[in-house]
Amino acid sequence: MATGLTKTALTRHLAEKLELTNKQSGAFLDLLAETAIKETKKSGVFVIPGIGRLVKAERKARMGRNPQTGQPIKIKAKTVVKFRVAKAAKDMIAPPKK
User: Fold this and answer.
1) Strand, helix or coil at 60?
2) How many whole angstroms separate alpha carbon 22 and alpha carbon 12?
3) Is 68 helix (H, G, I), strand (E, B) or coil?
4) pLDDT tier for residue 1 given thresholds of 50, 70 and 90
5) What pTM did the predictor assign?
């Protein structure tokens, strides 16, 4: 399995590119995450321009199935968070086939 960019590696990369200390770039990432959570909780949407948006969504109650026994079960309604990738980012990562 391929490993992704860790928080430490991302912090170092940001520090190097923006000529900041590792501590400053780490604080920036923490503040970004904290702000994203707070804004999504409050308004239901948090946009990171060029990357995507966090969206709070309501899921309705529904009938599901226990995979072991096959018995139908009730799944309660709940609030979930979804991430929607921006079209620009999606097109750069996986260009559409022509």
Assistant:
1) coil
2) 6
3) coil
4) very low
5) 0.77
